[in-house]
Amino acid sequence: MAKTHASNLKKWEQMTTSVAANAADLPHLEVPRAGLAKVLEEVLGILNQQALHRSNKQQSTERLQTLMAEGERLTKVLEVSLSQHYGPRSEKLAEFGMLPFRGRKRKAKNAKPAPQSPGGTPEPAKPSAGPSSNPTK
């Protein structure tokens, strides 16, 4: 079973207090008791620092999230304002990291390329025969 910091600290506090209370009977244990008291004091200080850093980190994270949201909002305001000022199709928008509107790309109606004649020029398209032009009926 793993010991926690809290259980160690409680044990160390009890040990230093008890040895100090019985200092007359245990004079030879004063040096290790003082060492343990010093370690305990330093550990408590470090734990307090960690708690303070954890609190500061939480505050920093909250502030960072607030600033990021504010930055996004202000960026949108600037983008809309620049687009309105220069026009949505202006190439000047690229200078600000924005894409000017260049129209929507249309899909080709006929996905097949036009057949080429041996001379390299496209052949004229042949009219398709409708259902009423079938002479075999």
How would you summarize what this structure contains?
Helices cover 54% and strands 0% of the residues. The chain is mostly helical.
Question: Low-confidence segments, ≥5 residues, pLDDT <50?
Answer: none
What is the averaged pLDDT score?
86
Q: Helical percent range? A: 40-55%
Number of strand segments: 0
Summary tags:
single chain, 137 residues, mainly alpha, 2 helices, 0% strand
Helix-strand blueprint:
Blueprint: H1 5-21, H2 30-86
Helix pairs in contact: 1-2
Written overview of the protein:
This protein has helices at 5-21, 30-86. The protein has one domain (5-100). The mean pLDDT is 86. The protein is mainly α and 137 residues long.
